[in-house]
Amino acid sequence: FGNEVNVPRLNFGVAKDNEDKLYVFGGETLVYGPDGPLYAYTLTTERFDLNALDYGWRFVAPILIFGAGGGGISVSSAMGDSGSIFHIGVDGVGTVQVYKPQNGFWEIHSNLNLGRFNSVAVTDDKNRIYVMGGSSGYPNFTRLQSVERTVLTTK
Predict the structure, then answer these.
(1) Cis amide leading into 37 (omega within 30)
(2) Using CA atoms, how far apart are residues 138 and 151, in angstroms rounded to an integer?
(3) Which of 22, 84, 16 is nearest to 48 (CA)?
(4) Are 79 and 123 in contact (CB under 8 A)?
(5) 137, 119 in Cβ contact below 8 A?
């Protein structure tokens, strides 16, 4: 395959839209500060067109917020028939952001009831997102068993 993303990252979101484009967004990247290496959150979003002749990752609009006061892991999926992508900034607030490939930008959609770190999410064919598990984050890092559902509207 041989195509590298522009920003090396871990704990990031990944999704495929309905037009055979892959997206990677958010996550953490290694940076070097005065005290040595550390991980920093990135807002970047990159797209790869599986059908393009000039293969390569291209930057598109960055996610809007990664997480007030500490961030968390990004989760993603393609959304129903609209082809939109979602990012949940699991940040103690649980901000849901939606990327609309046809418009080329991210929007704030809603907040979940619970902010989560290291959770998992999936969509169904009715544009509902189910977010489950993870932890409550700093300072207790309580493991969560709950599942939340939110419905993404297509505008």
Answers:
(1) no
(2) 28
(3) 22
(4) yes
(5) no
Tokens encoding 93: 């607030």
Angle formed at CA 121 by CA 30 and CA 61, multiple of 5 degrees: 55
Model pLDDT for residues 49-71, shown as the tens digit of each residue: 988 867 789 999 988 876 432 23
**First-last CA distance in the chain:** 36
Which amino acid does the sequence have at 63?
I
CA distance 90 to 34: 28
Picking from 151, 116, 105, 114, the residue whose alpha carbon sits closest to that of residue 11 is 116
- Residue 131, burial from CB neighbour count under 10 angstroms (0-12, 13-18, 19+): buried
92-105: per-residue pLDDT in tens? 557 777 777 778 88
At residue 82, the 3 state secondary structure works out as helix
Q: Read off the tokens for 127.
A: 């544009």
Nearest to 102 by CA among 154, 64, 48, 56: 154
Model confidence, pTM: 0.76
Residues with Cβ within 8 Å of residue 98, at least 6 apart in sequence = 79, 84, 85, 86, 87, 106, 107, 109, 152
Nearest to 96 by CA among 39, 26, 145, 18: 26
More confident residue, 113 or 60: 60
